[in-house]
Amino acid sequence: MTQERFTGSFTQQEPIPEAGIEAAMAVLRHGRLHRYNTAPGEVAETALLEEEFAALTGARYCLAVASGGYALACALRALEVQPGEPVLTNAFTLAPVPGAIASVGAKPVFVEITDQLVLDFSDLEAKAKTTGARVLMLSHMRGHLCDMEALLGLCARLGLRIIEDCAHTMGAAWKGVASGRQGVIGCYSMQTYKHVNAGEGGLLISDDAEVMARAVLLSGSYMLYGSHRAAPAVEVFEAVRMQVPNVSGRMDNLRAAILRPQLRLLAERVARWAERYQALEAGLRGVPGLRLVERPVAETYVGSSFQFLLPDWSAARIGAFLGRTLARGVELKWFGAADPVAFTSRYQHWGYAEPQSLPQTDAILAGLVDMRVPLTFTVADCAQIARIIRAEALTVGQGPEPEAVELPVIQ
């Protein structure tokens, strides 16, 4: 009997909407790509994007920048994090998060995670007290939100200010409150594999006028901050502008033009991702040896990626499983590999951070499997992918212990 094989691409995104293409062409034709280069009476695409995203999230202020990583570093600088200062963050995150901390000379301090892939609050409390940290860079890694109400209460008691890394949670919410609206600053990414696509790009939101004024000045506004619309009053800038360095990282009008029509599609995209995620979940529920990550009722999540755990599987067994699924067209990533592969680096790989012991996180990541879910997949595609994963998990998981195998290489 011939085995079914998935033939779709795990890296193919949907095309840019026609409205975005038309808006981008208009910018190219007039040539005013720089956000502060406008004709008389014209409002820059970047300023309009900021205004529209602020309205979408309910934030008072918004700033568009060059990338999600820049947004994170800008947020740290806006909170006046100093060289050598400890900054807490999840042990389960991606390299741009500790990279942003290191880029301002601060020290990443990693916090253990639970088997729900979110912060362990007891470890957070212990490390906040032992390090004296005053900032938590909370990574909503792979779209998993912790109990935000409980976290806010804990951080208030510990004196921690929260920067939310919402690269994977644009469009998500906890009890109806948009991701990014609980911390002092929320940071988002518009990199190709995120929820709106400009190739690269970042957004910051905040209700704190002085913090946002610092962020705008940091981003390279020179003396043109008065042209920002979703921004604090001019007098707030006047109070801080001589103390804030220019660390240029502006978004341009071309990318803003591509992004604005996509914001209007975000809610529909979130609904479509939910359908695909739930098809995968339904197809994999009940597989012996495979554990799903159950989503809390309070969480509105964006299913742009999918994770499951293979607890107690050996590295050889997981390697054999990944090789067999890849041979059938299903690209899975593993966070337990010895070396960083396919965007799955983890805290031991980041040599610029001080070595730390995180046994609880290590045990979880040793069995954590991850998969992209682009919207170019149909619900039927996701059902087929689940059938392939289920079949191979049963074959490898219930078979004899394999010999050590080389991990397949994927992008």
Short description:
The protein is α/β, with parallel strands linked by helices. The chain is built from 13 helices and 14 strands.
Outline the secondary-structure elements.
Elements: H1 18-30, H2 45-57, E1 61-65, H3 68-78, E2 86-90, H4 96-103, E3 107-111, H5 121-131, E4 135-139, H6 148-158, E5 161-165, E6 173-174, E7 177-178, E8 185-189, E9 202-206, H7 209-218, H8 234-240, H9 253-263, H10 266-284, E10 291-292, E11 299-300, E12 305-309, H11 315-327, E13 333-334, H12 359-365, E14 368-372, H13 379-397
Parallel strand pairs: 2-3, 2-4, 4-5, 5-8
Antiparallel strand pairs: 1-9, 6-7, 6-11, 8-9, 10-12, 12-14, 13-14
Please describe what this structure looks like:
The protein folds into 2 domains: 246 residues, Aspartate Aminotransferase, domain 2 (3-Layer(aba) Sandwich); 132 residues, Aspartate Aminotransferase, domain 1 (Alpha-Beta Complex). By secondary structure, the chain is an alpha/beta fold. The mean pLDDT is 95. Helix content is 37%, strand content 13%. The chain has 13 helices and 14 strands. Helix 1 packs antiparallel against helix 9, helix 3 packs across helix 4 and helix 5 runs parallel beside helix 6. It has a 7-stranded mixed beta sheet, with helices on both faces. A 4-stranded antiparallel beta sheet has the order 10-12-14-13, with helices on one face. A 3-stranded antiparallel beta sheet has the order 7-6-11, with no helix packed on it. The protein is globular, with a radius of gyration of 22 Å.
